[in-house]
Write a structure and sequence with these properties.
Length: 224
């Protein structure tokens, strides 16, 4: 399902410069060290996450994969962007993993999966690009393809006092590539109350939680 903005093209064009954000390069806020701090905390949550067959939805360059991969027996990586998936494949190949890795280049909403095939899922920086309606479709689909008691790791952008200085909480926002090309992207940020409400509404039980100034990560288990 395409959102009414330029998100797909933006990420395809941004693939080669994407990981820089995690190292504090060209961040949306000038406090670059805060990015690095949150990334280290989230890597540690990733290291304790994952089981069985894991799906990484909208995996991008698979930045988090080196930290969760050893906990899984098989990994399926889905992204709509050809360039993101190429960078992802390069990262995975460099790791010499001894498990099956499947790559799917597609809009997640368009892929036909069998029901209840995955034991865990990573959803990082995708839901912040979905409207509330699209989030509902997303969760319905995710629940259908996950086994009962599956684990879900949600990583995304925090709505923090520092963020408030630079961004709106929700709406179409301009994003620029290093070459200056601008895109209009739907983006929203989540505060701790938003996260708690979301988990409650979707019967996700919190297991580990980190809420930083820039990013948050919440590791959960499906209640049924
Ligand atoms: C902000 S990046 C996050 C990448 C990665 N999950 C991470 O945490 O580094 C968002 C990614 O979502 C992908 N994406 C957005 N909507 C998608 C969809 N409906 N289906 C598949 N990929 C999607 C984009 O191509 C992009 O690679």
């Amino acid at each position: 399902m395409k959102e009414p903005n330029e998100m797909f093209d933006y990420y395809d064009e941004r693939a080669s410069e994407y990981d820089g954000i995690y190292e504090g390069h060209t961040p949306g806020m000038p406090e670059a060290d805060l990015y690095k701090k949150d990334v280290e905390k989230i890597k540690s949550i990733c290291g304790r996450f994952g089981k069985g067959h894991l799906i990484d939805v909208a995996c991008g360059t698979a930045y988090w994969l080196p930290y969760y991969a050893s906990n899984c027996s098989e990994i399926t990586l889905v992204d709509q962007s050809r360039h993101m998936l190429a960078a992802c494949r390069k990262r995975v190949n460099s790791l010499n993993l001894d498990i099956s890795i499947n790559y799917i280049k597609s809009d997640f909403f368009e892929v036909r999966f069998l029901s209840k095939v995955f034991d865990s899922a990573v959803v990082a920086f995708l839901m912040s690009h979905l409207t509330e309606e699209a989030t509902g479709f997303f969760i319905d689909k995710l629940r259908r393809i996950l086994n009962p008691r599956a684990s879900v790791l949600w990583i995304d952008g925090s709505w923090s006092p520092i963020r408030k200085k630079y961004r709106d909480k929700s709406g179409l926002q301009e994003r620029k590539l290093e070459n200056g090309r601008a895109f209009s992207i739907f983006k929203r940020y989540f505060d701790e109350h938003d996260i708690e409400s979301f988990l409650h509404e979707n019967s996700l039980v919190r297991k580990a939680f980190y809420f930083g100034d820039v990013f948050f990560a919440v590791s959960t288990v499906l209640a049924y």
